[in-house]
Design brief:
Layout lengths: L2 H15 L4 E4 L5 E3 L5 E4 L16 E9 L3 E9 L1 H10 L16
Parallel strand pairs: 3-5
Antiparallel strand pairs: 1-2, 1-4, 2-3, 4-5
């Protein structure tokens, strides 16, 4: 198995187990959890925190949301939107329009 395929399999498995811990990037460089609509930043200790804003992932999975004076996402990994759509379709969590909303107002 190639390392790219191994990485895809690992991320897909993590996404399956952490489907409720997916967050979408917002224009102000924060993320909004798609399950509870809480806004948070990537924790400063995360490697993803060092990524330039224009290269930051649109979607990510996180292991923990730390609620302090500011909300932070810890242990994050980038998620391919196609993987997310596949997982929510498989788990029956896709909207009736077949679209994923990353807008916290929806």
């Amino acid at each position: 198995m190639t390392s790219k395929k191994w990485e895809e399999n690992l991320c897909s498995a993590l996404l399956f187990g952490l489907i409720s811990n997916v967050a979408a990037r917002q224009p102000d460089a924060t993320y909004v959890s798609l399950s509870n609509r809480q806004q948070a930043k990537i924790h400063p200790s995360s490697v993803l925190c060092q990524v330039p804003q224009d290269s930051a992932p649109e979607l990510l999975i996180y292991n923990e949301m730390v609620l302090t004076s500011a909300n932070y996402l810890r242990t994050c990994s980038a998620v391919d939107q196609a993987w997310y759509q596949t997982q929510i379709s498989a788990q029956g969590k896709i909207s009736t329009q077949g679209k994923i909303s990353t807008n916290p107002e929806d």
